[in-house]
Structure prediction request, 250 residues.
Amino acid sequence: MSTNDQNLIERLFSAGAHFGFSKSRRHPTVKPYLFGNKQGTDIFDLEKTSELLAAAKAAVAEAGEQGKTVLFVGTKEEVKKLVEHFAKEVAAPYVINRWIGGTVTNWSEIKKRIARLHELIAEGESGELERKYTKKERVLIGREADKLTFNFGGIKDIEKTPDMLLVVDPRHESIAVAEASELGIPVVGIMSSDNDLTKVTYPVLVNDALQASVTLALTELTTAYSEGKAKYVPKPTRTDSRPRRMNTRS
Prediction:
């Protein structure tokens, strides 16, 4: 084992990442990744967790290097602020309040709602709302804007369906994971022992309720994504290189 691997295992241990849930909540797919059970609580084998995390980091790094969009998802109260923080650090879209059904499977409809949000933002910034609407109408429009921001504020700057999802607790975000699966979008899942590993492409088995554990996993993954993005070279736009024909007529 390398020094880096040992260091990661020690940091995972210090963060409490090795604590799963009770045996009664265990999903059968998790069993090969357990070190044992202590006083009724499943304990993850952190060597295997570090291997899973390495595979997930490689996947998000490759996504970044290819210029792909990774959508961060985490609506549980104890992790939503962390998900927002790390997503913003790497300029990634995020969903932290509520996953709206059809966010990826019915993207054309979601785009209309995002367009409406942009319209209201632009009207507010330009002062058009003040000129066009009465005070009562502005109150109603303000409520509409607040609702749209709550639902779509984290994804308002993306123009197409994401290329990958990074999900904290896929079991809790089952609708998002199911939609990604339907479209063949790979999913990185930060997940505990109550999750089905077969539901995600790249499982990362850690405690998904402890903030220290989730913070460590998100730090590792976003760092890898950021490093990948730094290597991204956009494809040059195609231009018409054919010489223009001179008009020789007088």
